[in-house]
Amino acid sequence: MEKCPIHVNMHGGGFVHEQDHDDDLYCARIAAGIRGIVVDIDYATSWEHPFPCAFEQSYAVVQWVFEQCEAWGGDPKRISIGGHSAGGCLAAAIAMRASATKDFALCLQVLDYAALDNYKSVLPGGNERSGAFSKLYADGDDRVLQLPFCSPIFATDDMLKELPPALVINAGSCPFKKDNEQYALRMAAMGNEVTIQCFMDSPHGFTVRLAGEWQQAQERILRAINEASL
């Protein structure tokens, strides 16, 4: 019997919101589209558990997924991760740490309008709402927001070497659009396989919240996971 692919998903919500029904629908669509298993991580929110709790939890879950492969009938060579907004930050950080530790090898990382720079919003002129989320995530210590596993945009070049292939989904009116472009280009410059696609008529959150060009974005994600799982 052929072993199935597994995708690990991390929801968005500024690190303050929990997983919700929209995330359930998204994960069900992905599971059906890849004919495999989707593990949706409902990590602890920063109201009571600031950084690095969500990151450490999510990393541990991905490790656990690899350990369950045989029991689930999954293929350890076909495990991908993905995340949306705050979840995209977690996915990027997990990929970086795994690349350094060799704890596990992912076949793909999907960064969907990822929140890759959680520091800039606390600077003068930054977005007030995002700044409040960032301060809560860092437990009030702005220096934490410049740590690469908290804000992957601050990763060194060495940390961006030998990463799994990446699909970066951008939205035309997303406040993180330039950060995603910059991160994608840096990953590519370090020799990684990177695909970036911007959906110009879509807002932040569109892929899961079914706004703008959500159908095209979901199809692009499904295609990337299926191709990485060949």
* Cα gyration radius (Å): 16 Å
Mean pLDDT: 96
Distance between the termini: 16 Å
The main pleated sheet reads as: 6 strands, parallel
Name the helix and strand elements from N-terminus to C-terminus, one letter apiece: EHEHEHEHEHEHH
Net shape: globular
How many strands? 6
In terms of DSSP E residues, the strand content is: 15-25%
Helix content: 40-55%
Describe the structure.
With 230 residues, this protein is α/β, with parallel strands linked by helices. It is 40% helix and 17% strand. The protein contains seven helices and six strands, in the order βαβαβαβαβαβαα. It has helices at 21-34, 53-72, 86-101, 128-137, 177-189, 206-209, 214-228; strands spanning 4-10, 37-41, 74-84, 108-112, 166-171, 194-199. Strands 2-1-3-4-5-6 form a six-stranded parallel beta sheet, sandwiched between helices. The longest helix is centred in the first third of the chain and has 20 residues, at 53-72. The radius of gyration is 16 Å and the shape is globular. 47% of the residues are buried.
Which secondary structure elements does this structure contain, and how are they paired or packed?
Layout: E1 4-10, H1 21-34, E2 37-41, H2 53-72, E3 74-84, H3 86-101, E4 108-112, H4 128-137, E5 166-171, H5 177-189, E6 194-199, H6 206-209, H7 214-228
Parallel strand pairs: 1-2, 1-3, 3-4, 4-5, 5-6
Summarize the structure.
By secondary structure, this protein is of the alpha/beta class. It has 7 helices and 6 strands.
